[in-house]
Specification:
This protein is an alpha/beta fold. 44% of the residues lie in helices and 19% in strands. It folds into 2 domains: 2-115 and 298-315, ATPase, nucleotide binding domain (Nucleotidyltransferase, domain 5, 2-Layer Sandwich), CATH 3.30.420; 124-295, 2-Layer Sandwich (Nucleotidyltransferase, domain 5), CATH 3.30.420. The structure holds 5'-O-[(R)-(carboxyoxy)(hydroxy)phosphoryl]adenosine and zinc ion.
Length: 339
């Protein structure tokens, strides 16, 4: 089944052609440079750039795959969650394309597709498994019971992990999106140089809370500035990265032990974090658990993962018609607008 997939939930306009779990092409046009001067994504600009880029990106995906539109069996599109204006560009484009070319339309949840990035990287990877989904907007611990069956068992009570990295990095003077820069600079720092808090969410062992960590970083910077003291950005980055990983690892390990999971996966933009990948792998090895994570090129937003999840949605009969809408928020286990 050849699927043409479209993704426009945030600041990447992406299109891909997939066949089952195989990626025939994967084109991503990033707007990051444009949003950088504002220190974050400006929704109105994102929508406009998606509208400008989407036709060219889709054409490039078909060309690179060597597949014509007539050889496409279905169109898959991210319809939630994300920036509503940005999502609407992709959804309307996909609806128009599917309708005019007479192809079925498959709506795909953004976090489901991040999880599916693991299926691309490891052809033998299959549910059930426990997945830590960490991105710029979400931090969830999800039991993936089947390809389209999920149970969220843990979540952040405030900021997402990526948000904590980005906002702390910004306070330290790094450009948006700071998570990547912070990861790099942390390699040169000493994580013991600063003692950051290790927040616990009382009575919710699988949940996270990152806002206290972000505030601790911002306060430390302000205090140092007021006293005229210097702060070591590599050391503070290393201390923060370690704490975020401490929190994510503790919840994941506890959940796996309690619920008997022996396959653990990472997903979402923050799954590119080098310390998280390294430590999660070591933790799994110490228990004899299987460990999966997407290749770096499939950690961030892309359409290949949308196509692969779209394939499993199609197998489950999850199609939509021309009334498909986009949604800024939607739980991962929700099936809105499925006909
Ligand atoms: O999944 P994603 O591309 O977009 C959302 O769906 O939100 O995730 C983007 C997030 C940003 O917060 C970015 O800073 C973070 O992923 N990120 C990283 C790394 N690479 C990307 N955070 C920490 N370490 C990295 N290496
Ligand atoms: Zn994402």
């Amino acid at each position: 089944m050849n699927i043409l997939a479209i993704e426009s939930s945030c600041d990447e306009t992406a299109a891909a052609v997939t066949r089952g779990r195989e990626v025939l092409s994967n084109i991503v046009a990033s707007q990051v440079e444009e949003h950088r001067i504002y220190g974050g994504v400006v929704p109105e600009i994102a929508s406009r750039r998606h509208a400008e880029a989407i036709t060219g990106v889709t054409g490039a995906a078909l060309k690179e795959a060597g597949v014509t539109l007539s050889e496409i069996d279905a169109v898959a599109v991210t319809y939630a969650p994300g920036l509503i204006g940005a999502l609407l560009v992709g959804v309307n484009f996909a609806k128009g394309l599917a309708l005019s070319a007479g192809k079925p339309l498959i709506p795909v949840h953004h976090l489901r597709s991040h999880i599916a990035a693991n299926y691309i990287t490891r052809p033998d990877w299959e549910p059930p498994f426990l997945c830590l989904v960490v991105s710029g907007g979400h931090s969830h611990l999800v039991e993936v019971r089947d390809y389209t069956d999920y149970r969220v068992i843990g979540r952040t009570h405030d900021d997402a992990a990526g948000e904590c990295f980005d906002k702390s990095a910004r306070a330290m003077g790094m450009p948006y999106p700071g998570g990547i820069a912070l990861d790099r600079i942390a390699d040169e720092g000493d994580p013991d140089a600063y003692d950051l808090p290790f927040p616990h969410v009382a009575d919710h062992p699988y949940d996270f809370s990152f806002s206290g960590l972000k505030t601790a970083v911002v306060n430390l910077l302000h205090n140092a500035e007021q006293k005229g003291e210097s702060v070591s950005v590599p050391d503070l980055s290393a201390a923060l990265r370690r704490r975020v990983c401490d929190m994510l690892l503790r919840a994941t390990e506890q959940a796996a032990l309690d619920l008997g999971h022996t396959s653990i996966a990472l997903a979402g933009g923050v799954s590119a974090n080098s310390e998280l990948r390294r430590r999660m792998e070591a933790m799994c090895a110490s228990h004899g658990w299987r460990f999966g994570r997407p290749e770096l090129c499939y950690c961030g937003d892309n359409a290949a993962m949308v196509g692969v999840q779209g394939y499993y949605e199609a197998l489950a009969g999850h199609y939509a018609d021309g009334s498909l809408n986009a949604y800024a928020t939607m739980p991962i286990d929700c099936l809105t607008d499925i006909k």
